[in-house]
């Protein structure tokens, strides 16, 4: 018997009961055993020798033999009965158990089935009617439940109404914080939930090459509003003494660096646990001091940190500044009293009907509503109204404010970032009206403020004469007040290019001074530092509907509104971001500007920037930008920080889950490839081995001992 037939026989006999035993090595006694021998004793062509039989063989035999008729010698009765009983039991289970949704009448033969049996059980035989009635009752109950649930859901038209839409958006922001540009990103990007935010990861279209071209030759735009801002107020000596415990001059710039302390530069500082340098690092933060202002006692600084670093940084700042006294959030009683006094009395029904025009629909007013009108959530929607965000110290006088999601931050990357800013923004026009209800008319009443504003506008105009963003000193800060950019929104998208004529008209001396020395210290001041101004600008923002109505009333369509509304001025801060600072190739590549705004004005500035031809990127391109700059990324490249350790644990769980989702035959064989740690980088093991080698430990040769950690490092990277 051939190998294939033997294998087939083995597979066939595998499922046979053990009680039936066949003889091994017994040849079948066929009637054709002596056949095939001619008269001369030699086999003819048709009378060939048949191979030996080896028991039962599947299928028709090639040489005319049939199946072996030999019976087993004996059968064990008990084992044979148990085997047959198990087979019968399995057969009955398979027949009675339904593996899919089936009806009772499907148990009948096909010639007895009728279409009416599905809704009329009397068409079934009597033995099946009870089962059919029970199944029919279950289906009716399930249908009634579905109908009740579907009746609760509103129609799409009702769900898309403005009030209902806002309620739905506010409900969805309770778990993950939405940025002000979330709706814009959700229509164009793949969204991910990270660090308590809902962020755009990458666009839904191909963008890698175009984004790289934008970073290299034009401008790339990112929304970094998810970065956390912590504000510190107090005396300069007290702040410097407290913050010096968390830094060291050996690790780079500190909070008390000369250029940083003056407010002219923004610097990056690596912070540690208080008094634990060089151990227990927390991570990098960016520090921005407010320039000294005449008439204001004390100093003020902002610390910008990654959201994963905030939970470690904030308690450490409270510890070194001794700020443990929680300040409850202020509630203005006058506002609530004014709302109660100004609440109109309900008018009679006939008066309301008389006010309505014939054929007009009656709108839902605040009088009819049992609840106040729905408002869009600005800032952190997951934070409860009574959550403490301010802490103070009676001994040091330092006050800590958590300004997370209170300031919008956009990053423009590329050599033409300054051209996009100068094209999209315009310095605020002077307001001659005296209106104390808005902050800008009061600001214009002071001549010193107007003089400072004119100097800032001149510096901003000088930026147009610069050919590339990389020419400016890194970390330069410029304060400015601009008009509402929606007033100068172009009708079509356009790609901003540097204007040669404006570059020639710019004063050459001012341009050289700006490139060499940066922005003067007095021009780094901005009203964005004041909380009252930020709140005033956010509350008095012109709604989009009112702005469109004002534009429609213009005699010349598309022209700018004149005069500019008094509430259409916004204080901003422009912070220069350095480019590549490592190596000789592509020096200063990836430089750009950060634009800081008060909350509520995110989309008012986002759309005008997009209309200037910038390319929008998400988290993925942010990582690629840092890789191209050869700059470490937080928390990816900081495995010794608490945030980096947590990130590695989350990444390991994600990679392991993805690995287990593949079937075993399709999984990567990391053992075969020699990968020691496929899901996590064992930096601790690498550091310990290097420390052991540097101390001269080990008995193996130097070449052999060095090769081991180096090979490990190559595998990890």
TrEMBL record:
Q: Where is this region: Disordered?
A: 1-67, 136-162, 357-376
Cellular-component GO terms for this entry: nucleolar ribonuclease P complex; ribonuclease MRP complex
Q: Report the superkingdom from the record.
A: Eukaryota
Composition bias (Basic and acidic residues) maps to 44-55
Q: Which InterPro entries match?
A: Pop1 (IPR039182), Pop1_N (IPR009723), POPLD_dom (IPR012590)
Name used for this protein in its record = Processing of 1, ribonuclease P/MRP subunit
Under Pfam families, the record lists: POP1_N, POPLD
* Annotated Basic residues bias: 1-14, 144-162
**Which keywords are on file for this protein?**
Nucleus, tRNA processing
| Protein's cellular compartments | Nucleus
Which stretches make up the Pop1 N-terminal domain?
Answer: 80-160, 168-234
Q: According to the UniProt entry, which residue ranges have a biased composition of type Gly residues? A: 27-41
Q: Name one GO biological process term.
A: tRNA 5'-leader removal
Q: List residues of the POPLD domain.
A: 592-683
